[in-house]
Amino acid sequence: MRARIVRYAAGITFIAAAGIAHAAGTPTPRRAATPEAEVRAVLAAWQAAIEGKDVDAAASLCAADFRQEEMSDQTGQEAAREVASFYTSGRRGATTIDVSHAVIVVRGTVATAEHVRIGSVRRATYEHRFSFRKEAGGWKIAEIEEGIQVPVELDMPGLGPDYLALADRWAGANLEWAQRTLRANPPQGGDSTLRAFALHRIDEPLHLWSAPQLAAVQAYFRGAIDDAIAGMRAERVTQGATIWKLYNQGWIVRTANHTWGHDIYDGVDRAKMTDEQVDAILGQIDVLFISHWHGDHLSMRVVKRALAKGIPVLLPPVPERARGELAALGPGATVIEQGADGEVRGIRYHAYPGHQDGLPNNCFATTTDGMTILHTGDQRWEADYPWIERIGDERAVDVLLAAIWTIEDGRAVRGVRPRVVIPGHENELGHGFDGRFPYHRDYDIITGPPQQWYVLSWGERVHVDPR
After folding, report:
1. Could you read off the pLDDT of 362-371 as tens digits, one per residue?
2. Angstrom distance (rounded) from CA 333 to CA 316
3. Phi/psi of residue 13, nearest 5 degrees
């Protein structure tokens, strides 16, 4: 770098070169780096190590108890190496890392860096949050947390804010018409053809990659939740059961004397329930059942708020990676082993020993006030069919609340023999396109009698009379 000579009126000449400033003939020491600059340097070194595919260098920048729960079941250097290996391997496409947007905050010996963008060709870009800790040898990365998805329109050259605004307006027009049509044509008593067409219109904007980031989708989501809350507050059940679909595999069931919830999930990225909505839903239920330890079924935010309100939460068996989360919940959360029977606040339950692949997934059959509801969570394992196919012989199931993939081949429905089938898990915005099952797929699998089938959008309800 060429020296810059600056003359001041006082006659003193300063020479600045490569960041060193001194009065002519009188060198002064380089100013010490600020803590913020030190943290930024560690972040930049981590980026360089990942981009250079140097797993050892990336892991060496991490603390002894490093963790990234979304990526690794390990902690410490094992976790650091596993995470670094994942990012350097390009298993989801070529990893891209951008630290230029990072906002660094230092408080004593801890620091955070928000808005670090990590993405790939095959996966959307997400803003990550890095936590740092000052140790004897300098700053170390203590944790990496995945945060909000960056709208692809703002991440791809040639698109940009104008394109994002256009997508938002298009999504809003579709969702506004669909919501108005569904409200005018409820699941019981409405025009079934119009309902099917409205649900198909919802599929399209919800399959945009940036759907959770669109204001129109967020407004539709929260409006649907408000509809459910208003319905729960107003409805009195004297017989049978009324069932509200919230989001994903989240349901509320009300009988004459009891109300309970299954897998209440508060949403993804910016398409989330407000605190007021979560509290309003929890204010309606007596018990919360959780099928398995996946974030789109077990929301720590919802579970913690439920426990704070004194609501019993019945959890499935805990995988090793979730032991710390269970400990953090404290009293009130009860782990229900697979195959167990019990009763909580007047609701009898049986935990069928289901699985999503190898992960324990309790399929809770709940019975009270003459009604039996079976919620299957994310049941998906071929080895479980022998007991699934016997359920109809063991108990009379009134309503089956099942993920679309659990019932699409017909075997589970034939085994359970419910009176009513309501599919779930459609359009989960946290999933990629292949796992964001559209409503039109429900219509591909619907069969006729002896079952009644209802396809519900978020916030809708049906009432099932007793046998």
Report:
1. 999 999 999 9
2. 10
3. -100, 125
| R_g of the chain computed on alpha carbons | 27
Characterize the bridge pairing of strands 399-403 and 62-67. Answer: unpaired
- Superfamily name and number for 167-464: Ribonuclease Z/Hydroxyacylglutathione hydrolase-like (3.60.15.10)
Count Cα neighbours of 14 within 13 Å in the Cβ-side half-sphere.
Answer: 10
Whether the Cβ atoms of residue 306 and residue 313 lie closer than 8 Å to each other: yes
| CATH 3.10.450.50 intervals, the chain | 35-150
Provide the percentage of residues in the chain whose pLDDT is more than 90: 70
Query: Domain 35-150, what fold?
Result: Nuclear Transport Factor 2; Chain: A, (3.10.450)
Record the pTM: 0.81
Q: Are 396 and 403 in contact (CB under 8 A)?
A: no
Single out the residue of 251, 239, 234 nearest to residue 371, CA to CA: 239
Q: With contact defined as beta carbons under 8 Å apart, do 402 and 421 qualify?
A: yes
What long-range pairs does 188-193 form, CB within 8 A, spacing at least 24?
188/454, 188/462, 188/463
Evaluate if residue 373 carries a pLDDT over 90: yes
Amino acid identity of 86? F
Lowest mean pLDDT among 15-29, 178-192, 250-264, 314-328: 15-29
Phi, psi of 379 (to 5 degrees): -45, 125
Q: How far apart are CA 132 and CA 146, in angstroms?
A: 15
Q: How far, in Å, are 265, 304, 465 from residue 420 at the CA level?
A: 23, 32, 10
Rounded to a whole number, what is the distance in angstroms from the first to the last CA of the chain? 86
Average pLDDT over residues 36-44: 94
Tokens describing residue 253: 């069931």
3-class DSSP state of 440? helix
pLDDT (tens digit per residue) in 277-332: 999 999 999 999 999 999 899 999 999 999 999 999 999 999 887 887 888 887 88
- As a whole number, the mean pLDDT across the chain is 88
Which residues of the chain does CATH 3.60.15.10 include?
A: 167-464
pLDDT band at 17 (very low <50, low <70, confident <90, very high): very low
| 101/139 Cα distance (integer angstroms) | 20
Give the pLDDT band of residue 9 (cuts 50, 70, 90).
very low
Q: Which of 445, 354, 450, 343 is nearest to 396 (CA)?
A: 450
Determine the Cα–Cα distance for residues 149 and 339; give it in Å rounded to an integer.
39
Does residue 8 have a pLDDT over 70? no
Q: How far apart are CA 178 and CA 185, in angstroms?
A: 10
φ, ψ for residue 135, nearest 5 deg: -120, 180
pLDDT at 22: 42
- Give the pair of three-digit tokens for residue 191: 């025009």
Q: Give the number of other CB atoms < 10 A from CB of residue 274.
A: 13
